[in-house]
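Side project, low priority. Logging it here so it doesn't get lost.
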Amino acid sequence: MNEPVTPPLIKQLVAAIVIAAGAYNLLHYMASFVISNGYWNHSLFLQHSAILFLLAIVMPVYLRFVGPLPLGKIKQCGARWHALAIAALYIAEWLFEKVTNVPQETFMITIFAKPALGIFSTCLIIFLIAPINEEIMFRGLILNVFTQRGRRVFWMGALVSSTLFMLMHSQYQQISTLVEMFIVGMIFCSARWYSGGLLLPILLHIQAAVIAVILG
C-alpha cells in the first residue's frame, strides 16, 4: 500500500514555520554576536546577510519539494497604482508627524550615524537585501500558504502576513509608524496577488525604503 501523500497545504505550512523560526533564531543569534563583539556599525548587514544566506540554502529545497515562489509579471497588474499608494502613504505619515509633532523615530535618527563603511553596509541592507529577505519571508513563504486557495483565503493570509510584518519592525516606537507598516504590508500583499509573484513586492519595498530615508 502506498503511503498517503502529504497535502500541499501541510507542506507549505510546515516549511514556512520551520524556515521562519530558523530565521528568527538566527536573527537573535546575530544580534547577540553583534553585542558581544561590538560590531554596531554593521549590525544590520550581519543580521540580514545571515538570513539571506539561510534562504539561499533552503530555497532550492523549498522550490523542489514544497511549492513555487514565482517572480510574476509587472505589466498589466496595477504596478503604477501600487507605487502611487506607497508614495501617498509615506507622505501622509510624514505630514501627520509634522502636524501632530510626533517625535522622529530613534531608529531613523541613528541609522546613518556611522562611519562611511557602516553607512555603505547599511544602505546595502536597506535598499537591497532587506527587501529581498522580507518579501521572500512574508509575501513568499508565509503568504504562499494562502495564495492558491481563493481570494477570500488569500486576504485572510494577507492580514496574518501584514500583522507579522508589523510586529517584526519592533525597532519603531510610534503607533502611527506601526500602523503604517501594517498598511505597507497589505499593499505588498496586493502586489503579490495582482502580479502573481514576488518581483513587484520587492520593487515596491525598495521604493518604500528610498522614500522612508528621504523623508526621515
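Brief comment: The chain has a mean pLDDT of 91.
Revisit when time allows.
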